[in-house]
Write a structure and sequence with these properties.
alpha/beta, Rossmann fold, 3 domains, four-stranded parallel beta sheet, 15 helices, about 45% helix, globular, binds 1,3-dihydroxyacetonephosphate, binds iron/sulfur cluster
Amino acid sequence: MDKNSLIKEIIRLKQEKNAVILAHYYQDEEIQDIADFIGDSLELSKKAQQTNASIILFAGVHFMAETAKILNPDKKVIIPDFNAGCSLADGCDPADFKIFKAKHPGHIVVTYINCSAEIKAMSDLVCTSSNAKKIIASIPADKEIIFAPDKNLGHYLQKETKRKLVLWDGSCVVHEAFSLEKLIDLYKKNPTAKIAAHPESESHILKIAHYIGSTSGIINFIKTDPAAVFIVATEAGILHELSKAAPEKTLIPAPSTEDNTCACSECAFMKINTLEKLYWCLKYESPEIIVDEQLRIKALKPIKRMLELS
Ligand code: 13P
Ligand code: SF4
């Protein structure tokens, strides 16, 4: 089927099945364009909570679709490709995390939403990059805190909130690949540019950033800041929405250490989804996200607390 026919069929199936398509900013342009809603992790969780649709097609990675299912046990949640993982979620094994937690008794466990339902079920609070500071600040000062699985976001939160966090040793392969040396060279060539970075980036990148925030935060910053040129240190998929939201601005993707063809950073997990997979997924309502009910109830608690606080 050609691209136009695929798009027509997806729209037809969506109406026929009362489905909603939620997509993250890191998805391919054509997926973002066909989605009913695009957003950052927090916004997508909120949309998943509010929808009246019978089917949620989540164009993103597994932990995002799983979060939607935890919030919507009575809805069918489907994902274009079950292999859409995340280095943060995949690098935090529940058995290892249980041992880690036991080594730090009495600590409040805050986990970044980029983790599995099993890890969420072992947490007191979940957070996303857009509400993490607020979530940490909500914890009484006399309490000790474990933060997992992103050590880079954890280091940033330690600095911002002045709280000591016991950190799990995990990271995002995409945001960890930004090259400080190349970024400085690029900045020297564009001295009027402002650098906007996602907090999953390493601290040496964040140190020179003019703005640090979630994907939606970055879009909002670039849209409203008077500067004309921006260097964007997050996954390249965001450039599509940015070019629509701020068409008059010059956007330069931050260079990664790898010499890849697009000279920018792409998340291979996010890019595993294609328009064709979206079509098959909607047609056969598969692969479907299934979460054991006992596990779901445990994982729901810290997500609900997060949504109440944000
Ligand atoms: P946001 O919540 O900022 O969209 O981040 C999601 C993510 O996976 C970043 O790599
Ligand atoms: Fe996970 Fe990083 Fe991809 Fe986001 S960009 S989904 S954190 S691997």
